[in-house]
Amino acid sequence: MNIIEKYKEYSRKKIVIGCILLIILLLSSIYSLSIGGYKLSLTQIYHSLTGNGDNATNLIIWNIRLPRIVAAIVAGISLAVSGAVMQCTLRNPLASPYTIGISYGAMFGAAFAIIFFDVGGAESTGKIFVNSPYVVTVFAFIGALMAVLIILLLAKLRRLTPEAMILAGIAIGSLFSAGTMVMQYFANDLQLASMVYWTFGDLGRPLWVEVGIMTVIMVFSLIYFIYKRWDYNALESGEESAKSLGVNTERTRLWGMLVASLLVSVNVAFLGIIGFVGLICPHMVRIFMGGDYRFIIPISALFGAILLLISDTVARTIISPIVLPVGILTSFMGAPVFLYLLVKMYKQ
């Protein structure tokens, strides 16, 4: 078998894996539509999706489950791809949307809105909610972008190395975390409960409008990352090698970080904090698929979507009728999986 045939076989295997993951995502989506407090048959789902369902089924599918499923897929793609790009551009396997301070910036912004705009609320049953979610979302988005822009500005002005950008992200995250704790200390009981409620990553929050915004930003970001896939491959081979191939490494890093951070900021603002997806998905894909970003980016997207969708389905049904925030489940799952991946990587 010559080199060309070997290359075709290599590419064919990756495409087959991608098709298998796509089928798994489709089947997981159908299962997630059917399962819950009110179980639906495949016939009911088909009739509802084709516009022939009854009112109760249409309400459950179109207003409750389908927006949640699409949000899980979009958020899973966004977090996983952003993590893969950040790990490449920062040349650090621990880089993720959260190690550079994005989540802490969003948390600070949300806490600021809850404190100073008094948007927290509670029902007579004791259930906590945020009565002006758009205000909190806007401030969470501003806080997340502030964290990113500070790091990028430092990188631009002081020409920080990729390793120094990670350290700067940790420092900025610590600063925002301290600011959030100060506000929590002076908050009343209702405000404090509302802050804690917001930090739970919950896919049940966004409606179709928010899901549409997330989807549009995800699609354009994914197109950009796929377009730059060869530059990311060059970055993986080292700074000097990338420059010798004609890659503007500084511009590629800055724009990659900016687009990835914008993508994550939108998701964190609408959904809250969902941990570990952006950290472990790219690692798992690299272990089984290699380090070619032509395949890492699309396969990470599919894997992230499947992981978050399955996690949310489990969170909805494990102690039904109580629905757990998916952020709790991903944190429980993510920590041991990441430790396992670390051990596996350093054994090789």
Question: Mind sketching the topology for me?
Answer:
Layout: H1 3-34, H2 42-49, H3 55-89, H4 102-116, E1 120-122, E2 128-130, H5 133-158, H6 162-186, H7 189-199, H8 208-227, H9 229-236, H10 239-244, H11 249-271, H12 277-289, H13 293-317, H14 326-347
Descriptive notes:
The chain has a single domain, classed as Orthogonal Bundle (ABC transporter involved in vitamin B12 uptake, BtuC), CATH 1.10.3470. β1 (120-122) and β2 form a beta hairpin. α2 (42-49) crosses α3, α3 runs antiparallel to α11 (249-271) and α5 (133-158) runs antiparallel to α11 (249-271). With 348 residues, it is mainly α. It has helices at residues 3-34, 42-49, 55-89, 102-116, 133-158, 162-186, 189-199, 208-227, 229-236, 239-244, 249-271, 277-289, 293-317, 326-347; strands spanning 120-122, 128-130. The chain has a two-stranded antiparallel ribbon. Helix content is 77%, strand content 2%. The mean pLDDT is 86. It starts with a helix and ends with a helix.
